[in-house]
Amino acid sequence: MKALVYDGPGRRSWTDRPDPEILAPTDAIVRIDAVTICGTDLHILKGDVPEVERGRILGHEAVGTIVRIGNAVSAVKPGDRVLVSCISACGRCEYCRRGAYGQCLGGGGWILGHLVDGVQAEFARIPFADTSVYLLPPAVSDESALLLADIIPTSYEVGVRNGQVGPGDVVAIVGAGPIGLAAITAARLYSPSSVIVIDKEPARLAAAKAAGADVTVQPSDAEAAVREAGGGLGADVAVEAVGVPETFELCAELVRPGGRVANIGVHGKPATLHLERLWIRDVTITTGLVDTSSTPMLLRMLAGGHLDVSRMVTHRFGLQEMDEAYDVFAHPQDSGALKVALFRE
Description:
The protein is built from 13 helices and 15 strands. The protein has two domains: about 1-150 and about 290-345, Alpha-Beta Complex (Quinone Oxidoreductase, Chain A, domain 1); about 155-285, Rossmann fold (3-Layer(aba) Sandwich), CATH 3.40.50. It has helices spanning about 40-45, 95, 130, 140-145, 150-160, 180-190, 200-210, 220-230, 245-255, 275-280, 295-305, 320-330, 330-335, and strands spanning about 1-5, 10-15, 30-35, 60-70, 80-85, 125, 135, 170-175, 195-200, 215, 235-240, 255-265, 285, 315-320, 340-345. The protein is about 30% helix and about 25% strand. The protein is of the alpha/beta class. Helix 5 (about 150-160) packs across helix 6. Strand 8 (about 170-175), helix 6 (about 180-190) and strand 9 form a beta-alpha-beta unit.
């Protein structure tokens, strides 16, 4: 089969790899029908995630068809159309029993495209299939379902839910990439009074406006805009959706006393935490890896027409065009790409 392989920092190749095999009775083999690229994959290629070994097949977001299952798998069968979650769950450990699948102690968590081969390939082995894939209703398209593999549950759980967004809140979202746009959609579920999105790129600010942001501004104008919306106090919730020191530090400046900073971004470098200013302001800072415990609920909302993800995918490719898709996704300032989707031809 063909697969996208990490060859070390700055190097990748779409190349031949052996077809995956069942290695454990809880495994399933999935034919990949649709797949996408995540900002985390770009962090890996930069060398920001040193746990990823050379030769690893990347990718952790896909929709596919079950082709084989291990003898312990009972929730899915060959022929089933499924969403492959970015998080795998053993279903038995202490963390899985409380729905914190991202912290799985039994060999799960974020492993696809990280600690084991991922889904940017023609076929993929999915560990713990019973608790790590989701049957898709016919009403949900492959493209829409792709967005529930990672970015929608991530923005909902790590951004909006961790940030405790509530009715009437002023929400500042720093970063208008795919995660930031998904955070707008997720925040809107809780009726905030104002959603302010900050980004350097005019095209992404336009996308944020189309996705439901009330105000879109450049970083240089962020503090004034957020203070105006917050009655001079700042944001109730500041969501970091980029993963660089400057954006985290901006969130800490934008949040009001008693507010919350919800960090979603994957950071490859240290950020300065100004506790000398924050300690007296009762500011809460949360971080986290998505658990995907919300995925069944979000799937029901998507199937029922109550979750709009239609604007997220801007570029579409065949699976064999993986290299071109990476180039487009990695240079959004030139391509205007938000989320890319690749389909089996």
